[in-house]
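#struct-queue
[09:14] JT: dropping the first one here, sequence first, then the structure tokens:
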Amino acid sequence: NTVIPDKESPNFRTMLGHMDSRTDLGDHYYKGSGDSMSQASLSIMAAKIAYENAAFIRNVVSEQWK
């Protein structure tokens, strides 16, 4: 049987989300490390999440980025 995913589900990810599944903001992102790699990773993470559905974004922001 073919399962069709619910595109409005908080667990639904786009192809981009599957290619780079990082959503965890580790301590090094907001403790002021300031290195260019942390800043680049944070920018990429924020930019790619913009392509996900509203429920996924809400879940990540309220449950993981709190």
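[09:21] JT: and here's the second one, same format:
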Amino acid sequence: MQLRKKLLTLLGTLLITILCCTVGYADTQPACTGGPQHEFESHILVLNSEESEGQVENVCTLCGYTYIEYLPATGHKYDDWKTIEERPESKIRIERRECQICHRAEVRTIRIESSSQDSDSIQEEKSGKPGINQMDYLLSSSVGGVWMWAAAALWYNSLVFNWYKRESAAKKRRGGEGL
């Protein structure tokens, strides 16, 4: 019986902790003095752009409560890199990309390798075995990670189950008292 009380106390404490941590910060605005709830009118103070954050002033039309909301910078949205010029004699390629919104351009210079084969096929030719690229490694490690977490969860559950069995057996030996 005491085990049940302990488990219920633990679950109740966990539930109260979750509720207090999530609900406690849900409403941070003071109550509206001019009506049942705030009715905000928004005014843009600073317009956000790709590189700078913006500010919006929100004013309650009923009570005059005001707060400023900060809008994050949107960031550039670039197209794919496009080759502008290729210089085989100096082994250089010049590429350019442009922001879809503000048309800001970026240019980069890339050194051209002597062969156009990808690294996987080069690795296969050298070793005679199929190569493993980074994506194969990431996929296999993430699947391995899932299996490791599943094994850890099963191990933990078996520990709890064995502890419960031992405590129940000890309770029966004591004649039903304790636990």
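[09:30] RK: nice, looked through the second one.
[09:31] RK: The chain has three helices and six strands.
[09:31] JT: good to know. Residues 38-75 form one domain.
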